User: Fold these one by one.
Assistant:
Number 1:
Amino acid sequence: MKNQTETFLSSVEKMFDQAADLVGISDDLRHKIKVANSTYTVRFGVRLRNRLYTFTGYRSVHSEHREPVKGGIRYSPHADQSEVEALAALMSYKCALVEAPFGGSKGALAIDPSEWEEHELERITRRFTQELAKRSLISPAQNVPAPDMGTGEREMAWMADEYKRLYPSDLNSWGCVTGKPVSKGGIRGRVEATGRGIQYALREAFRHPKDIALSGLSGTLDGKRIVVQGLGNVGYHATKFLSQEDGAIVVGVIERDGAVVDHSGIDVDSLYQYIRDTGGVKNYDGYKDNSNSVLTMNCDVLIPAAMEGVITKENAKDIKAKIIIEAANGPITFTANEMLRERGCLIIPDLYANAGGVTVSYFEWVKNLSHIRLGRMQRRDHERQTLNMVDAIEEMVGAKFPKEHLEKIVEGPTELDLVRSGLDDVMREAYQVMSAKWHSDSRIPDLRTAAMMIALERIRDSYNSLGI
Ligand code: NAD
């Protein structure tokens, strides 16, 4: 992807410029917001397999108009400074759009995790954490990483533990990273949060028939044909929920080593397990080695959930999906976005679509700082109040409440219920604001520009109120 003339960073900057032209903002502030505040490159040695290996890591801080800054850390052999800067900028805009009170940051370690044993990865991750901590690039108050491509709960637990060892008297040390396992200060619902957010985003889009009609679709998600690229954390959870809870049919899955097609619907749980067991999709029922033809096959909704820069000016003309929801960051380049828009494809942009992850990370961080599980204080009080009300109703009407209803309404919300409720609320409200903005001015060409404009207006206001 690195040889593209249109890089990920240049695409993000062009999208920024397009929105900034429509937002009232001074040139100097516009420049200040556009560029990354700082990007650190750290090189560190770890002695493994009887020799010293040097690893290269990055942490870019895009905007500190709110602190801490927030953004994932990916493990990818292709990572470089330009990529993390593009991702950090997207984090600033994403957080502003969904009103998560953070500035934007992103990190990466240039490593292929599949080449290392678990105990080796742990040592590398702990050393990387030390390098980040030395520069305040991991801290509950200043910079809070999270999982991304190639990282998950396990890496976040190692990072949190290493930070705790370095700062044993920091009472809030669990809040130094999010996406941790529940047993290490994590929150229920974080692992699947980004995929769950994709589901909530699509549900809300289908509650806006005017938007959906532009793509030529109508109705609900039931029976809609889905193709997904990347059956990792985000792609797997999104397609699992959409197929098992909304009646959508997953007709194509594209992975690194090929694709799987089944017009009657792919069982994503079974395919996900197969990938875990065998390392890829090869030889699964419906396997095809030409994955490009699956990216461009006929479908209603395409979910690129692997990496950036996969839909470019070279293949955009062949894409037949009516809706593309950007689960990955930056999968569609600026030029491809224009081409797809012109032919009526509805694009639900990354800075909104995959914000479920940072939204639930925000809930986790709040949980860590408050040192109490969400809902702990209210649950039994809700039960007591509901039972009082039920008693009063039974007395008034002289009849007993049906038992099956009673059990459902008496039980107060669990942590997972609250996380889902909060996430659903954020995804619905952000879509509504974005869609209203899009339709408010004929010069705003699409949801992406509307989303970017809202983010920029909020960041501008934040800087202006600081007197900068
Ligand atoms: P992951 O590593 O769990 O999954 C990525 C999947 O894509 C893997 O199954 C991998 O095999 C596949 N893949 C990689 N290269 C591919 C290619 N060229 N073609 C087809 N498949 C390919 O990563 P993830 O956490 O699911 O992240 C995926 C994307 O979502 C990234 O762009 C990431 O920045 C974005 N994202 C992730 C989160 C999160 O919470 N994990 C949040 C927001 C955005």
Note: Residues 147-150, 194, 229-235, 254-256, 305-307, 327-329, 354, 357 surround nicotinamide-adenine-dinucleotide (CB under 6 Å).
Number 2:
Amino acid sequence: MKTLTIENLRVTIADQEIVRGLSLAVPRGEVHAIMGPNGSGKSTLAKVLAGHPDYQVTAGSVTMDGENLLELEPDERARKGIFLAFQYPSEVPGVTIANFLRAAVQSRLPEGEELEATDYYAKLYEKMELLGMDRAFTSRAVNEGFSGGEKKRTEILQLAMLEPKYAILDETDSGLDIDALKTVAHGVNSLRGPDIGILLITHYQRILNYIVPDDVHVMVQGRIVRSGGKELALELEERGYDWAREAAGEMALTR
Ligand code: ADP
Ligand code: MG
């Protein structure tokens, strides 16, 4: 089964349980949104999927197309097809976007195979055009001095170049004005297809007007309290998260 499957996952950091028995499955070919208030553990979940070493998985499992993800190092997960676009992308001074992405793409090729420079640049420029990025960006250091919107575009550019099996986008909409949001959404939509599963994490419903999800999951206090179709996002926008917090409280009592 070609699915990213999370079962009864529990995650702790600094002796605090942040993810508390979360289950979720994202099949390839689908876009699933996780919505939830700040502090509900969305970024923690994203980082655990990518293999961040600070977080302790105390229970549950994560499999990618049937393979246990949790026993793999972060770079192995990436090479096997997991991609995480960070909520707060890091700056990498002294490393240009062109070199950074080239190394990343090269590292995914089978041993002994060389990435052709002309092929690489053709693809890079094509993807940059799609994301409305000036070619001059290729010679700038990764995220150094970038605006919030530019950082988010750079994350999506990486996604476009790496062609992962599963992409986790953590609040890719935050800090974007409406035009940048539309451009990024256009970029993500152009990457949708049967070979990729996308987990789109967001606080606000707005981006889901442009990247229409197959399913929406509401996450509160480390759990999925409700799942539904795309209309669930609109309901959340109207009703806010208070009812979801109540639902989370009830779930905590029954376990
Ligand atoms: P969200 O992305 O939904 O806003 P986060 O996953 O960022 O939520 O945070 C969930 C909770 O985990 C918060 O209470 C946060 O303070 C805590 N947390 C996250 N990362 C750390 C960390 N590195 N050290 C201590 N607490 C953390
Ligand atoms: Mg977050």
Note: The chain has eight helices and twelve strands.
